[in-house]
Design brief:
Elements lengths: L5 E7 L2 H13 L11 E3 L2 E3 L1 H10 L15 E7 L9 H16 L5 E6 L6 E7 L1 E4 L2 E4 L4 H31 L4 H11 L2 E3 L4 E3 L5
Helix pairs in contact: 3-4, 4-5
Length: 206
C-alpha cells in the first residue's frame, strides 16, 4: 500500500509567533551537506523581510503591520513518503498549494522552507490568514476536509513523480550503450513532473 504522506497543521493569531516560526524554519541548524536554506513561495524565492510583508499583507481587514485583531497564520508541515519521495520538494509544495487553492476557489498566499536536516526531508509552510474569494478577502480556515485533500493531492503527485523517475531510469538503462542518447536522457532525469499532464518537465522554478 505504500507509506503515507505526513501532514501536520497548527495555527497562530500572533504575528510575532508567525514571524519567529518562519525565522526558526530558515535558521535551524542544518544537516550535514545541507545547503543554506532560502524561503520560497509560489513564484520563486524571497528574503525573510519580503516574506514578513507578504504575511502581513494578506490578512482579513488589511495589512497595517499585521497588528490588527484578525491576524492569522497557518503552519503546515508536509513530509512525503520515503518510498515515493520526489526529488523536488518545492515543486511538490507548489502543486499541493495550487490544488488546495483551486479546490477552495480561493487565492492562497504562502511562504515555505525546505528542510533536509533529518532522514525524512520535509517542508514547512506558513499560509496567510486571508485570501481573495468572490471579490473579497476572506479568512482562510482549514478543516479535516482540507487536510484530506492536501494528503491526497500530495500522494498523487508523489506517485506520478515516482513513475516518471522509473521511466527515466529504464530509458537510461536502454541508452547505456549509446553515449549521446544517455546524456540526453540523463538531462531529462533531473526534471520533475507536471501534475496535471503527467509528463516530464523542466521544473527548475526557484
Amino acid at each position: 500500500m505504500g507509506q503515507p504522506l505526513i501532514l501536520r497543521h497548527t495555527y497562530t493569531r500572533s504575528r510575532d509567533t508567525a514571524r519567529a516560526g518562519l525565522r526558526y524554519y530558515q535558521m535551524r541548524p542544518r544537516g550535514e551537506d545541507e545547503p543554506p536554506r532560502s524561503i520560497f513561495g509560489a513564484d520563486g524565492t524571497m528574503t525573510r523581510d519580503e516574506a514578513y510583508r507578504l504575511l502581513d499583507a494578506h490578512q482579513v481587514g488589511g495589512g497595517a503591520g499585521g497588528a490588527h485583531r484578525g491576524y492569522l497564520a497557518h503552519r503546515l508541515m508536509l513530509s512525503p513518503p520515503a518510498d515515493r519521495r520526489p526529488d523536488d520538494l518545492r515543486a511538490l509544495t507548489r502543486h499541493v498549494m495550487a490544488e488546495l487553492a483551486r479546490d477552495r476557489r480561493q487565492a492562497l498566499h504562502w511562504v515555505a522552507v525546505e528542510h533536509r536536516n533529518t532522514g525524512h526531508p520535509h517542508v514547512h509552510i506558513v499560509l496567510c490568514g486571508g485570501g481573495e474569494r468572490d471579490g473579497m478577502v476572506r479568512e482562510v480556515r482549514l478543516d479535516r476536509g482540507d487536510h484530506a485533500r492536501i494528503k491526497e493531492d500530495g500522494l498523487d503527485y508523489c506517485r506520478l513523480a515516482a513513475r516518471v523517475r522509473d521511466d527515466w531510469d529504464r530509458a537510461l538503462d536502454r541508452a547505456a550503450g549509446a553515449p549521446a542518447a544517455r546524456a540526453h536522457v540523463a538531462t531529462g532525469r533531473s526534471g520533475a513532473v507536471d501534475g496535471r499532464a503527467g509528463r516530464a518537465d523542466d521544473f527548475a522554478r526557484g
